[in-house]
Specification:
Blueprint (H helix, E strand, L loop, with lengths): L1 H19 L5 E3 L10 E3 L1 H14 L5 E6 L6 E6 L1 H7 L1 H8 L5 E5 L2 H5 L1 H10 L9 H10 L3 H13 L10 H11 L2 H13 L1 H5 L9 H8 L5 E2 L2 H15 L3 H9 L8 H10 L1 H5 L1 H16 L2 H4 L14 E2 L5 E7 L6 E8 L10 E12 L23 E8 L9 E13 L2 E10 L27 E12 L8
Parallel strand pairs: 3-5, 6-7
Antiparallel strand pairs: 1-2, 3-4, 8-14, 9-10, 10-11, 12-13, 12-14
Helix pairs in contact: 1-2, 3-4, 7-8, 8-10, 9-10
Amino acid sequence: MKKMVKLMVLLLQAAWVLTVAADPLRVEGQPDDGGGADTLSHSLVLVQRLEAIFLQGNGSDVTLRVETPDADEVKLLAVHSLVLSLQSPVLEDMLRVRNGSTLTLRESPECAAVFEKFIRYLYCGDLSLRLEQAIPLHRLASKYQVSALRRGLTDYMKFNLARESPSGHVAGWYEYASEAGDTSLRDGCLQYLAWNLSSVLRSSEWTTVSSGLLMTLLRRSDLVVQSEMELFAGLEEWISHNSPDGLTAENALRAVRYAMMPPRELFRLQSRSAVLARYRESVRDLLYMSYQFHAASPVHMAKYFDVNCSLFVPRNYLAPLWGSSWVVGNPTRDDRSTSFQTQLGPSAHDASKRVTWNVLFSPRWLPLSMRPMFTDTGAMQPTRIEGGRPRIIVTPATSSADFAGVSFQKTVLVLAQRRGRLLVKHVYDFHQSTEENGDFLADADLHRRTSEYLVDGSLVLHVVVKPMYQSLVTGKN
């Protein structure tokens, strides 16, 4: 009891120190002759005082003994039960039932190494950390139910997904988030890996990906890669490095979309890939169907084979035949347009056929329901108003009658610069029934030069067109 009273006295003294501190007095609000009140804020000095109380151990009433499982390391921290109880319901219960003035806590070596940082946060509400300390601190925040710190660390990790690290960290964070039940962090890591897989494949982190995460990625249609061949090369490297069991390797190889590779690449793959040669029997049927897909008319092939599967669904390929990059300088100024060509379909039967696409970007455009229709000549008639939101329109230059049996999934990748690295920040998918996406850049502030959506003042986009044969593919993969 005496120690508790002493602690309260110290806190009161801290509050008194604030009133006479040398720091300038901050007054919020203006004098109000009508009887209103101003606010005097010295919270920063109070936090500094509380930190000093922790560091010096003044008035502490309990000692935390932090041990590792093998008792290789022991840390002793003099703390104040009142402060810890206010911040953590778990510590409050443990302190209530403790015997004596020492509370023993057993932590992993990683958590023990950052435990003092964790306790300091309970006193002053901030901490400094490195990437490798994020997981143990998050684990401590979860264990002791310090929800504000847990949320803050989740946000920190999601913000630093693109940050450089010697061996990568996103895959490890994904595994931890799955284990800890942090769905926000797990989904953020998975989205980053999927949307930036082309760069991840070239990093040292790729071979550290677990088999479970590998399969989760391979099943996705929104992977952003140069081509399916680049994805196969990455998978071949992963298998060679990790030497998985036969079933894992076969399942991974069967998730490759071989039909999205031109026949010449398939022939080269079969003659040069040691991994494919080893597991050829497990994918023989997929290779056979892919060759047939390229040799015959897709509509004709559908009469004899049931091919409603992801094998025939393109991913978000960055190669020129599937779309084009577009840098829009000063995107708030006026409307811009560009054009590019793609192949009509992924089948070699349609490889020589090209589709020209017109893309129009407008920083302030009326919604589709409020726009005039196209003119007789097919020209787009944009209607711009102040306060309108950014819009992007992707339309074919030729009549849709030329695309019998083919539908087009249009995707716009928005790139951003994070810590000096260019990454995919957002992916917008267009519905077949409309030529625009109503949510496009809905949250972007393009007028602000420091907007995270701008790279050196420009909007960096990549438009991907994914042709799919309507008679072959049903539903969304």
